Amino acid sequence: MAALYEGYTLCGLVPDQNLSSSGIQGIEEERDRDHVVVTDSTRSVTLYKVSDQKPLGSWTVKQGQKLTCPAVFNSQTNEYVAVTDNKVIRIWKEDDILLDKAFKATVSSDVWKVHCTHGGEPVVLFQRGAVRLLDSLLAAPQQPIEEVLAQEEAIRWSTIIVAETQQFIIITTEQKGEHFLYLQRLNPNSVQRYRLEREEPGLSPLSFSATYRDKHICLLYLYPNGHVYQSVLSVRGLGTEEGVQALPLPRSLLLGLPVGDGQLEAASAMALDEAHVAVVGVPHPSAGGGKDFLCIWNTNFQTLQAGKEMAGKIYGQLWSYSNKVFIPHGKTLSIIPFECPKSSLASALGKLKHTKTEESKTPNSVPSWNNILHGEKAQPSKSAETRRTVSWISVFANCEFVIVHTLTAPVEEIQKEVEGFLTRAEFQDLQPSVGQLALTLVSRSLADPAFYSSSTLAQLVHTRCLCHSVCPDLVLLALEKKDYFLCQLCLQFFPDIPEAVTCACLKAFISPTSSVVNDRQTRAEDVKKKASAPSQLSCPVGLHKAVLINEILQTPYSDTFLLPHLKDLSSQHVMLFLQYLQFLYLKYSQDAFPQMEGFRSPSLSQIMDWVCLLLDAHFTVLVMTPEAKGLLLNLHRFVKSQVRLVSELGKIEGSLQELRKMKAKESIGQYSIEIIELF
Fold it and tell me: In this protein, which residues make up the domain named Nucleolar protein 11 N-terminal (predicted)?
């Protein structure tokens, strides 16, 4: 199933005053997958390193000049190419400081855009439809440029595709309400014109994207009514003569997206692979109004597979490179990593069998770290039951019935209805339905403080069809209701919990005044009060808190986004947390318990990473706190002993490697003495 992961900010934006434009003209991937070139709508081009969000270079044109097309990177010459004031082509290298001193050439006709593929020569597309290779154009910049488009016909979108080692320029145009597509091949030159089928009167496509697969170019386009169409073009049928007659372009409806009230305005759809489409600016089918989402839809099975709320205004722009989506929203350009596993009916329904790992435990055996601390045996997991596929109409009809019922029914009835819905084999693990149910329950709980169905929400989390981006208020609601068992489940099963929410959970779990024990936790995590460690180490927090804190330690995070929230912890919280991390470290260092298969225990590296993060966030406060002196000295001794151990192991590393290389003799008899010399 497709997934959207925690995003991060590449840079800030400077939108225009009426917020109609993001201020970004284009984003192009550079020499490798970790660099992008961002062109703003006025005067600047900036090179960014994606992995650490750092600008590596920036170039600006003079006041009064304007960049009129996005800059591209020519990998053949390691140069950047852009156009200013429609007719001035500028070329520069990364070490050039001033654009005004770089190479420039003025051409005879207005340029629409410069396109370039990795390893290919840049291609210049003029506003009237003509195409030139950059080198041939620069050989005679003032050469006459022919007009390919008809009168009153204007370009709306263009891109470049490499198909079977040949470059193709794709152009969409508009003329008096009619929309056309030009497919132009380079070397040998040929062009074919197509006419797009009419949609509802007055509707024009909002966005286009094109991909090449199975020896065909696939064009994807979105209309304001939410219809996403696909047209397939063969690249082998193009002759060497220009096609004057516009051929009809067949299309097929891929998706009918929800549009809410009225029509879509600033929206975009982009093909991620043969079965998944990223959509922005289209309402989330299960969220309320006033919220903008980035969503991934499965076109084969018409299912919403991932969604992420985007703060601020959406501008209808979307770029995708190297499994990352670049999306401007509000005053931020964000990068959202994504994953689209191979599509199948089982995965679309959430029925794909998981491999036998610690993450594939059944709901009835919630992993408890207390078992490791106190020597309990893991409970055997139940085998998955065989399920059969049913019709989509029946699925969603039953789902809608349950959702309507949850709006007014009491907790007991809702629990019974949802349990019945989930236990029916044909409905188990249906992701869109589970997401809608969770959103409905959470919305009602937030609106009505007297209503809260803890066990029902836990059932929905257990299906593994939920994530934080689908139901972003669930974890915070559980914290508000002090439902720490549900928090534990969310931390365990959600891969995309933001760092702010992770720290909120940590504060609640580690607070000395909070109580994290309830009857259901006591039943699920029965703890025997026996000391199993030979050193008789005592845990500085309660046993149930230890379980919850260890879920925190195993939650994915980014150092950059976690550190600011860790700084909000009080010195009392930091001291207690460090004491617990020290306790865990001692357990590991004394081999009191190894990493056991089948248990959710934090690794030694995870423990040390959190120690480092806490020290980074609170080192000054800890140094100035007298109570922390002993703790810091202990941690220092631990680290010093580990450094000494690693140093000693390094001394014998060469000898151990030689022993590994030695081959055992085939016949040594019943008794032998062998002398091994180690140098």
Answer: 1-338
List CB contacts of 59: < 8 A, sequence separation 6 or more: 44, 45, 46, 80, 92, 96, 97, 98, 99
Strands 268-271, 3-4: parallel, antiparallel or unpaired by DSSP? unpaired
222 forms beta bridges with 207, 228
Count of beta carbons in the 10 Å neighbourhood of residue 470? 28
Cβ-Cβ contacts under 8 Å for 34 (sequence gap 6 or more): 49, 50, 51
- Decide: helix, strand or coil at residue 432: helix
Please report, to the nearest 10 degrees, the dihedral formed by the alpha carbons of residues 118, 121, 122, 128 taken in order. -130
Q: Nearest-5° angle of CA 470, CA 279, CA 464?
A: 25
Q: Which two tokens stand for residue 449?
A: 């403080």
Whole-model pTM above 0.70?
A: no
Q: How many CA atoms lie within 13 A of 406 on its CB side?
A: 28
Mean pLDDT in runs of 10 for the chain (679 residues)?
Answer: 86 76 89 88 90 89 91 92 94 88 92 92 93 93 91 93 88 92 87 89 91 90 93 74 73 88 89 92 77 88 86 90 92 91 56 38 38 41 37 51 72 84 57 79 89 90 83 91 92 88 92 56 37 54 88 88 88 89 81 51 86 88 83 82 81 75 64 68
Contact 324, 339 (CB under 8 A): no
φ, ψ (nearest 5 deg) of residue 485: -65, -40
Residue with tokens 């004031």: 85
| Residue at token pair 């132009």 | 184
DSSP 3-state of 576: helix
CA dihedral 479, 466, 281, 51 (to 10 degrees): 80
- Strand pairing class (292-298; 303-310): antiparallel
Cis before residue 556, ω within 30 degrees of 0? no
Phi-psi region of 512 (alpha: psi -120 to 50; beta: other; left: phi over 0): alpha
**198 sits in which H/E element:** none
